[in-house]
Specification:
Number of strands of chain B: 11
Helix content of chain A: 25-40%
Strand order of the largest sheet of chain B: 1-3-2-4-6-5-10-11-9-7-8
Radius of gyration of chain A: 22 Å
Structural class of chain B: alpha/beta
Order of helices and strands of chain B: HHHEHEHEHEHEEHEHEHHHHEHHEEH
Strand content of chain B: 5-15%
Number of strands of chain A: 2
Distance between the termini of chain B: 23 Å
Number of helices of chain B: 16
Strand content of chain A: under 5%
Distance between the termini of chain A: 22 Å
Oligomer: heterodimer
Radius of gyration of chain B: 21 Å
Largest sheet of chain A: 2 strands, antiparallel
Largest interface: A-B, 58 and 74 residues
Chain lengths: 113, 494
């Protein structure tokens, strides 16, 4: 089963750890556009880095609890009281475009994919 | 110490604050002197993205007025401080050395900015960094590289290279950086200054632009261990605005450091990691041996321990940090902050903005992180990296059953030439081998200058400690500082 973000099954004819097709797909998912030269260079560099990462392949990690965070904090709550929030005009002044107290963006629907 | 304090031109933060608080030196004169130093030499060094001269002069005048009428202006009264340009300063540009934040002025101050202000410290400028703190040389900046004040053909380290260089060059006695995989400690070592990464959660991250949220931590640069302790006492402590801030059962979480610096190391157990990854150059390895000798001579016991997973830290880090970064940096889409490249629809606008706004290394890490998190690879990369992270934390915990602190090199080498590693990302990543494990475990670590190595350049020794044991870490650092002054040739100001 391939989800929209799946890279599994992307062929890797070069024998490197990651194919140019996979890098192109990753770039698109990350909303980055690479030209042919950049794509080639990124593929080489990412392959090189992923090669180095093979050092953990041999580790037996069965039964090891994944560690997402250094401190065992969860569900941090605060009192349900009003606090001062950021000034709307100051926030909007730092945005590329704003109108009528809102962020202004180009059309969202009806174009492209 | 007292005899060194009454100096007409105090240079350390401790001495400046003492003199200003006692009305012996004017904060305005202190600021003018440091602004003059920046004016003279920062064209060459490029430590600063922004110099806040007017704001600094105005605040200095306030401090002087307060002192004149007998008010307590705080433990850092009149002390200039430089902040890495990824810490939000209200109304003052905060760029992360990225084009994508061009023109953005934060609508709020980071918690550390507020605390420093209340303690009497004076913001003198915002310092250069590797874009979004991704790098080990401060060459990945949209505003050009920072140069090492001790040899301007070499890098200052990174990513907090601007802050390290600013302190080494005498532009400010104090600076703050952020450390995700060594970004305070490595530049501190390469520039010959003290650099501290506190325990994760000891210093509020509210207002620090996020890179890898489970690893990022703010900490100080200083020329002395005492100065680093002084400013860390000011910026540490619980902050309800940061949900990962450590809330102690008793007290406010402020670290207690300065009064213990003279306690020495007699009876402390200092660990030597027998299976430490190789790769340190001979000059660095020799200084580390001298550091062990010095601590032994001062009464510490040197104990061999094992930290088998230490060497896997690099791989775990370069999967976890880019994974978190790919998520954190999704917010730069041309909608809310900084620059936008206009396009016909939002999706095209996101892509055009991000493609034009991010530099090569940031794009590389976003792609690496997106890949590591993607369906089909999540378990093989990100999932395994999280398990390796656990192994490292467990190994440290086991080692700390036998020792109070650990001692390692900070950087495998002294400062390297500008351009040396830019074409080969993996060679740059290897700079972080010794610093990364502390970020993964969340434990404190600091770099202390300990003599010189190749080409007369500074070498740093790293002290690691268990969570919230900064007090013991600083005692060891203070002993190393004393030993460095007597055993090996100390460093003159650059």
């Amino acid at each position: 089963m391939r989800s929209a973000g799946s890279l599994a099954g992307v062929s890797d004819p070069s024998g490197t750890r990651i194919s140019t097709e996979a890098v192109a797909k990753v770039a698109k998912l990350a909303r980055l556009s690479l030209d042919a030269d950049e794509l080639r260079r990124a593929t080489d560099q990412l392959s090189d880095v992923l090669d180095h990462f093979a050092d953990i392949d041999a580790l037996d990690l069965d039964g090891v609890e994944p560690m997402t965070h250094p401190t065992p904090i969860s569900n941090v709550m605060r009192e349900d009281v009003e606090l001062e929030c950021l000034d709307r005009d100051e926030v909007l002044a730092a945005a590329p475009a704003a109108e009528s107290g809102r962020f202004l963006v180009p059309p969202i629907i009806g174009l492209d994919d | 110490m007292a005899d060194s304090m009454e100096s007409p031109t105090p240079t350390t933060a401790t001495d400046i604050a003492w003199n200003v608080r006692n009305n012996l030196v004017k904060a305005t004169d202190v600021i003018d002197r440091h602004l003059a130093a920046i004016h003279d030499r920062d064209g060459e060094i490029n430590a600063f993205n922004t110099v806040t001269a007017d704001v600094a002069r105005a605040r200095a005048a306030e401090i002087d007025e307060g002192v004149a009428v007998g008010r307590d202006m705080g433990p850092l009264a009149g002390v200039p401080i430089a902040l890495k340009d990824n810490m939000c300063t209200r109304g003052i540009p905060t760029t992360c050395s990225s084009k994508i934040l061009d023109g953005w002025k934060p609508p709020y101050d980071a918690t550390i900015v507020t605390r420093l202000h209340e303690a009497g410290a004076i913001l003198i400028g915002k310092t250069n960094l590797d874009e979004f703190a991704m790098g080990s040389s401060t060459e990945n900046s949209a505003f050009g590289p920072t140069r090492n004040p001790r040899d301007t053909s070499r890098v200052p380290g990174g990513s907090s290279g601007g802050s390290a260089a600013a302190v080494a060059a005498g532009f400010a006695p104090l600076a703050l950086g952020s450390d995700t995989g060594g970004s305070i400690r490595q530049p501190a070592a390469l520039c010959g200054v003290v650099g501290v990464k506190p325990t994760y959660g000891a210093v509020s991250r509210y207002g620090l632009v996020a890179f890898a949220s489970s690893l990022d931590q703010i900490g100080p640069f200083a020329t002395t261990v005492a100065d680093a302790a002084l400013v860390l006492e000011v910026i540490s402590g619980y902050d309800p605005m940061d949900s990962t801030s450590i809330k102690p059962a008793v007290g406010d979480g402020t670290l207690d450091l300065t009064r213990q610096l003279e306690w020495g190391v007699a009876g402390l157990r200092v660990g030597r990691i027998a299976d430490l990854p190789t790769g340190a150059s001979p000059d660095v390895a020799e200084r580390l041996e001298q550091a062990f000798d010095a601590l032994r001579a001062a009464g510490a016991e040197i104990v061999d321990v094992q930290v088998p997973a230490y060497g896997y830290g690099l791989t775990a880090y370069y999967l976890i940090a880019p994974a978190e970064a790919s998520s954190n940096l999704a917010r730069y889409d041309g909608v809310r902050f900084g620059m936008r490249v206009d396009a016909a629809d939002t999706n095209a606008m996101y892509m055009a903005t991000r493609t034009a706004g991010f530099g090569d290394e940031v794009k590389r890490r976003i792609m690496l992180g997106t890949y590591a998190l993607s369906a089909g690879y999540y378990d093989a990369y990100y999932g395994r990296a999280l398990k390796v992270r656990r192994l490292i934390a467990d190994d440290f915990a086991a080692a700390y059953e036998h020792v109070d602190v650990l001692l390692t090199p900070t950087s495998p080498t002294v400062a390297f030439p500008i351009g040396d590693k830019t074409a080969d990302p993996m060679s740059m990543y290897l700079c972080d081998t010794y610093t990364i494990p502390s970020n993964l475990s969340g434990e404190p670590a600091m770099s202390v200058p300990f003599g010189t190595g190749e080409a007369g350049l500074p070498v740093g020794v790293q002290v690691l400690a268990p969570a919230l044991k900064e007090d013991v870490m600083f005692r060891v650092a203070a002993e190393l500082e004393r030993a460095a002054a007597s055993l090996v040739q100390g460093l003159e100001p650059a």
